[in-house]
Here is the input.
Amino acid sequence: MRKSPTLKIAGGVLGTAMFLTACSGGSSEPASEVTGETGVEDVTLTVATFNEFGYEELFDTYMAENTNVTIEQKKAATSNEARDNMNTRLAAGSGLSDIEAVEVDWLPDLMQSSDLFADLTDDAVEGRWLDWKTEAATSSDGRLIGYGTDIGPIAVCYRADLFEAAGLPTDRGEVATMLGSTWEDYFDAGKDFVAENGDVAWFDSAGAIFNARLNQLENAFSSSSEEEQLIPLSENADVKEIYDTTLQAAVDDKLSAGVSQWSQDWTNGFQNNAFATMMCPSWMLGVIEGNAAGVEGWDVADVFPGGGGNQGGSYLTVPTMGANQAEAKKLAAWLTAPEQQIEAFKAKGTFPSQTEALDSDALKEVTESFFNDAPVGEIMAARAEAVDVAPYKGPNYFAATTIVNDAINRVEVEDVDSIDSSWEKAVEQFTNLQ
Here is the structure.
């Protein structure tokens, strides 16, 4: 199991227990006044999540305040595993949990079957989230099928001890300056690093770099017109440029550890000094701490090459096949209230998507001891403000990214193809989406 990170408020001003008590007001009712006829009978709610949402302690709090409710969590190891489970059970027409977490990259697929999910529209949550977060989960007929949980503003996490050994700056501000404002700057810094420490790669995975960069494109694979039009991969200069320059840095310049994210080799890499930097959306903080338990030297820089970017983020949905939709809606609303999402960020680094939370001093004061007491709340808030593009992700986005990532893996991880040849295979496969 991954070790749970311990995010804390600077100076210990607000402890978790005090914060939750203040949020609940000592009431036996959830803090969110979402409407819906619910009874007092005992009810068991199943909640399906993946990776780390930071909800474990929140579940305990909710059950203490709502003694008729028992919560059972079903946690998938990865987003892909959760997606496969949801698609299988949607096709079967049964078996989904009362609340199902959905990752943003496969949400567009589900929007095509939005009638299979309860409409969560409610005056009590109007304006709770960033506009683009809500719009992505709103159907063409105005039904809101998901309550936003987190977003993923991207910073750069780095091993300060390995930087020092290579003669590079270690101070967060100096590191941000060194990494610069462009991807060329970032790759150039990597060349300096590997020249001094060839036993350690600059970054973990070409696929990870590619996916992070992809989130800086407004229209990566398709237009955002009312009738979506796929951009043929053979004509997609923006994606081709990201693909080429990332693989050239990874393979030709030997800057990558050559492992696929979420593989066992990648997980092991945290313990054997396999790489010195990685793209770090806020939710990755908890993953790094869990995988790098006992390793000292990790830090976070307030920088993302090329400006800003958001990678990932999720929603809580209530499938209509569930027998406890009213109670599930209340729990989903409570979990995604600003107060609870700040607690989830402190627990696992899942950065809130709620406007009230983003303006909160309690969020901006969060620090992380594992990352050399980095002010992660302040850093991620700044990274969120730097996001100036909300990428359009249509129904084919997940499939399209899979095709290109497979092409990257053939070159970098499997070492069975060249950069150009693997791209041509991806172009051919892409035609099946059109």
Q: What stands out?
A: The two ends are 41 Å apart (CA to CA). Residues 112 and 318 are 16 Å apart (CA to CA). Residues 237-252 form the longest helix (16 residues). The chain is about 40% helix and 15% strand.
